[in-house]
Design brief:
Layout lengths: L7 H18 L7 H13 L2 E5 L6 H11 L4 E5 L7 H4 E6 L4 E6 L6 E5 L6 H4 L3 H6 L1 E4 L2 E4 L5 E6 L12 H4 L2 E6 L5 H11 L15 H12 L5 H14 L6 E3 L3 H17 L7 H12 L4 E2 L1 H5 L4 H11 L4
Length: 322
């Protein structure tokens, strides 16, 4: 679809669908607009999402609520130190009656997977998700199974300094389109949470599915058709290549997946903002979420207590706007 074919009436209809979806989600999730928008960007571009924050910030509740509102099959996997890869993808089981092996599929065979507290499991369990996340397939024994689209992994993790956590392998972090750092709600939002969940009012239940899988695929095609000028592409490349320049603070810069995901996320943000074209502000708005888990800090950066956000902010200041 070209930009000329992307007509206003269709664009308006898809915006209304998203607005209805957000309204349904807000019946349960108070505030956290940043997290909801990030998950929607992942859903509408086919990218996986990593949520980081202390316990109690509604990360798991938001993932489950989104799954209900979009009518997708949903499975929650609680990651623990004793979890095995077979607990995620499934395994072969010997049937004594038939004398044959049969496949028992794991919870990965769903549309939306919540990998809860993913960094509380050892690395080999975390890496069991890699093939599913990247190739959208799972190998059990000698058989490879394709996962049904849409397929989205939303992983939550606690900050690494908390007890009992393991750092995610760099290769796995790179598979996540966005890493969202979830903050505490505002005082007003938390007061509404208290009123909704602790006082006489009962928490809302029975979230309705307001869109279908077909709607998701249709909106994805609309997002793909968002116009992105070549100047914006070069702006993205300038940012990513800046992370790879020799620096005393960066050990390893962002991979080509960062460039791809910056483009996708910027186009999706433009769509959510009601535009059929992307602008530099779209790139800047998603740059932190796309890059923060793809930049490896050096010992010098850690010694000076620099964060990936500090370095990304400096890069955005250095790169000229188109």
């Amino acid at each position: 679809m070209t930009q000329m074919q992307y007509t206003a009436p269709r664009y308006q209809r898809e915006r209304e669908v998203i607005a209805e979806l957000k309204q349904e989600i807000s019946r349960v999730i108070i505030g956290q607009e940043y997290m909801v928008n990030g998950i929607l960007i992942g859903l509408l571009t086919g990218g996986h999402i990593l949520l980081e924050g202390v316990p109690g910030l509604a990360k798991s509740l938001t993932a489950g609520t989104v799954a209900q509102a979009v009518g997708l099959d949903f499975k929650r996997i609680q990651f623990t130190p004793d979890l095995l890869p077979a607990d995620i993808i499934g395994t072969e089981i010997y049937n004594q009656k038939t004398g044959e092996f049969m496949i028992k599929k794991g919870p990965i065979f769903s549309h939306l997977i919540l990998a809860d507290e993913i960094n509380r499991a050892p690395a080999k369990v975390q890496s069991a998700l890699l093939e599913a996340m990247q190739e959208k397939q799972v190998s059990i024994g000698d058989v490879t199974y394709q996962l049904e689209e849409p397929f989205l992994v939303i992983a939550t993790q606690n900050p690494l300094e908390q007890q009992g956590t393991y750092p995610l392998p760099e290769a796995q972090q790179d598979r996540f389109m966005l890493k969202l750092k979830i903050q505490y709600p505002t005082r007003e939002e938390e007061q509404k949470i208290i009123q909704q969940y602790s006082l006489s009012q009962a928490p809302p239940s029975g979230i309705s599915a307001v869109i279908t899988k077909e709607d998701i695929f249709t909106i994805r095609s609309c997002v793909d058709s968002i116009y992105l000028d070549e100047k914006i592409e070069n702006y993205v490349l300038d940012i990513v290549f800046k992370t790879r320049e020799p620096s005393p603070y960066i050990t390893c810069g962002a991979s080509p997946r960062a460039s791809i995901n910056l483009i996708k996320a910027a186009k999706c943000r433009a769509f959510l903002m009601g535009r059929d074209y992307a602008v530099p502000d779209d790139v800047k708005a998603v740059a932190y979420d796309v890059l923060r888990h793809r930049i490896l800090l050096s010992y010098e950066a850690e010694a000076e207590e620099l964060t990936p956000e500090d370095l990304i902010a400096e890069i955005l200041e250095q790169v000229h706007l188109p």
